[in-house]
Structure formats: C-alpha cells, structure tokens
Amino acid sequence: xxxxxxxxxxxIRERFKQLVNPVKLVHFTQELDLEHGRVARQxxxxxxxTSDKISVEVxxxxxxxxxxxxxxxDKVPATVVRNGKDYGIRFYGVPAGYEFSxxxxxxxxxxxxxxxxxxxxxxxxxxxxxxxxLEVFVTPT
Amino acid sequence: MRLxxxxxxxxxxxxxxxVEATEFPELAGKYSVYAVPRTVINESAFIEGSMPEDFFLxxxxxxxxxxxxxxx
Lengths: 141, 72
Fold this sequence. Notes:
Oligomer: heterodimer
CATH topology of chain B: Glutaredoxin
Radius of gyration of chain B: 12 Å
Radius of gyration of chain A: 16 Å
CATH architecture of chain B: 3-Layer(aba) Sandwich
Strand content of chain B: 15-25%
C-alpha cells in the first residue's frame, strides 16, 4: 500500500516541475532497523517516482562502511540530499510529516543550487571558518 | 528546520541534520529535547523554537565566537 496519498503525489509532481538539476537521495539503512527502515525506504522510492530528476541510492549502514564514513552518517535511517556537491544536508529518521515537507524544500533548493537566503545572511555566513554542526530535533506533527 | 539546511547549503563549514526526535530517544534525551524544534549547535549550545532567518543566524554566530556568550 502506498504511503503517500494520490492527491499528495499530484501536488508533489506539480511542485517538482520546478526542479532544475538532478538531485540524488543517498539513503542508509540496516536490516535490523526493520520498522523505520522499511517505511523510510518506501517513502523515498515513492518520492523518486514523482520526477525523473530525482534518484535514490541505498547503502547498508553495517556493510557499506566506506560510504558511511564518506557521508559521516552515525545512525539510521539516514538520508542525504545532494546534487554534484554534498552540502551537508542530512535527514535522520523516517522523513514523514513535518520532516517530509522539509525534505521537499531541501530537494527543491539543492536542485536549484540556491539556498534562497537573503544577501545579508549569505555575507555573514562567509565569515564562518570553523566547522559548525547543527542538529535540529523535530517530531512528525 | 529549513533554515539550518539553507545555512548548510551556503557554507562549506556548516552541516545540518534534521533529527526525528521520537526515533532517536537516546540522542533526544542527551540533549534534553522536551519541545521541538530544538537546535543543538556543536553538541554544546541550544536554540529553542523557530525564529526568523537573521535571529537564527545571529544565535549561531554568537555561539561559535570564541569570546561570545554561549546560550544555555
């Protein structure tokens, strides 16, 4: 049974008409994480079906150690949203509810290669020269 | 949440994780996440709730300044 309702699929297809460049979703899962892992993966597969500009690549958290290290993923399910460049955008957990809408936003921004931030913010961000790790905790509702 | 990812896009030094709190209760507990959104900066400082772009960025900048006050 599909996770995304037909009417939502139609709306997503409409939004994704704005996609510019290809976006890759790099997903990490593990066999033991059956409940969340399976749901997350199905959700991404359904999302990928809405536009030919989106693709998904799936890795096993326990086996694909090289990729886990490359993306710095430390828990699963994990989803990286990237184009030719990895911007450091990660989603941990099933991207449903609130997180799902953030995922759509991230896909659109990454596809456009434009953060959409104001000029003032862009200038201030240039001054950052040390690693900053932001973890935003959310719930589905 | 969107802002954190936008900042990550703009700066090579920033990485931003959107973490589903209920699926990672241990991590949420470690950072005392009782209400969302709660943003953790470099595992040590916190921002409560949502805020406008400029305020959110200022809060982050203040946190990472060596002499800046760290928000509790």
